[in-house]
């Protein structure tokens, strides 16, 4: 749903004396830690991982053979750096599209449209559904109250409530399927319904949705929609590269990124960029001893509802002292930092680290990702990202749009935050 929401900036005010003391302490630490300072981050090294994951391996939805290849790639990278690798297996509801969806306007004239299927959409019957369209506004409860859709296909705008809620209100009113109109330019984007829906759910690009709405305002519109999907129980994995702590090995700092993509998207920014950055952080810290342990984690099944990170948190045996999440760090103007609970702790550490490194960051929140699984358990987190991208969750999310310099900045920043907590 990726609705932008500016996190209210709560900057801690300190007395000048305290500030001076902090600067002095940092200087002393920096000198004493001189020998252990990590090497500089490499944009090209990180970018090579983006190419491998998004181009050579390609789209890698959880439960697919490509996802398994991606886990093998990450495992090999961790092992090359000298880390022990643990693989956690967990169950999840696998979702796949056997063929792209089809949507045709039949009357008042024949036009073929470009829909994207929402994850966990139920399929249509084999020959599709053919019915009249019905405008349902935003598809909220109040938009549908008392409406009888009698097998019509609902046409709803994106926004304000979850896709799944629109689908369930439309289904309750008797719709046979629902088409959601994207609210930004570019291709139709997929996204998760979190669980199987009662009726098929697709999105159409903004311009196509506007045209459908205009035709519908002028008279009846008939459409045919074909959606071919399967949902079944499967397993996926988290891949963990482990660096044991020297003096407090039972305490761990997590730096992670989701490895899965949505179907039909190469997932270069979402989220080969984040995994590439985690691998670069792992390289930077390979020779740096830390008091606490570090887990470098490639999470599975994020796109279906943060499943892998939820499993990691639910089954943890070590005390997790902080989590740095990297999701979509390769396309945009600058790095952004946020966390949904608005806990200042790690945000402040990240901002200070960025200041030391000369990296420009701003507090801004976008989307929903694996750090939320940790936040729910009360663990301090920082989410590093580059904000919205109208190509994410589409076939256009390719590596040529990725900026190696942003990857290098994200790696330097994440490594600095991890060292601050794990040292
Ligand atoms: N990478 C996105 C989240 C995101 C979007 C981060 C925009 C930065 C900018 C993530 O993979 C995703 O798609 N999240 C879903 C929800 C999640 C529970 C599947 C989302 O935000 O809609
Ligand atoms: Zn995503």
UniProtKB/TrEMBL annotation:
Keyword annotations from UniProtKB, A to Z: Signal
Domain PA intervals: 135-212
One example GO MF annotation: metalloexopeptidase activity
Endpoints of the signal sequence: 1-35
Name this polypeptide is given: M28 family peptidase
Keyword field contains Transmembrane helix: no
GO biological process: proteolysis
């Amino acid at each position: 749903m990726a609705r932008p929401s500016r996190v209210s900036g709560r900057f801690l005010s300190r007395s000048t004396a305290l500030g001076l003391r902090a600067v002095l302490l940092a200087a002393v630490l920096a000198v004493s830690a001189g020998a252990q300072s990590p090497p500089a981050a490499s944009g090209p090294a990180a970018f090579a991982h983006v190419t491998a994951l998004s181009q050579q391996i390609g789209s890698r939805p959880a439960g697919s053979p490509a996802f398994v290849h991606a886990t093998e790639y990450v495992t090999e990278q961790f092992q090359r750096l000298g880390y022990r690798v643990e693989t956690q297996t967990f169950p999840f509801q696998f979702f796949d599209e056997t063929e792209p969806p089809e949507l045709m306007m039949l009357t008042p004239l024949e036009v073929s449209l470009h829909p994207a299927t929402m994850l966990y959409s139920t399929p249509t019957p084999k020959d599709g559904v053919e019915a009249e369209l019905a405008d349902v506004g935003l598809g909220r409860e109040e938009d549908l109250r008392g409406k009888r859709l009698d097998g019509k296909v609902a046409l709803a705008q994106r926004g304000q409530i979850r896709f799944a809620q629109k689908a369930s209100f439309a289904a309750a009113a008797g719709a046979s399927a629902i088409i959601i109109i994207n609210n930004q330019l570019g291709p139709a984007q997929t996204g998760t319904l979190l669980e199987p829906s009662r009726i098929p759910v697709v999105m159409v690009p903004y311009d196509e949705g506007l045209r459908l709405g205009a035709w519908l305002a002028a008279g009846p519109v008939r459409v045919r929609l074909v959606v071919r999907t399967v949902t079944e129980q499967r397993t996926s994995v988290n891949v963990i590269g482990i660096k044991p702590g020297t003096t407090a090995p039972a305490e761990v700092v997590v730096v992670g990124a989701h490895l899965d993509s949505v179907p039909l998207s190469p997932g270069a920014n979402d989220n080969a960029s984040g995994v590439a950055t985690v691998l670069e952080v792992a390289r930077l810290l390979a020779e740096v001893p830390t008091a606490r342990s570090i887990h470098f984690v490639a999470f599975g099944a994020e796109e279906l509802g943060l499943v892998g990170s939820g499993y990691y948190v639910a089954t943890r045996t070590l005390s997790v002292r902080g989590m740095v999440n990297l999701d979509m760090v390769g396309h945009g103007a600058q790095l952004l930092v946020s966390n949904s609970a608005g806990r200042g702790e790690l945000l402040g550490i990240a901002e200070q680290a960025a200041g030391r490194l000369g990296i420009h960051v701003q507090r801004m929140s976008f989307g929903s990702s694996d750090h939320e699984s940790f936040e729910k358990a009360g663990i301090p987190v920082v989410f590093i990202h580059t904000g919205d991208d109208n190509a994410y969750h589409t076939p256009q999310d390719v590596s040529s749009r990725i900026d190696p310099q942003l990857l290098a900045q994200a790696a330097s920043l994440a490594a600095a935050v991890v060292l601050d907590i794990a040292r």
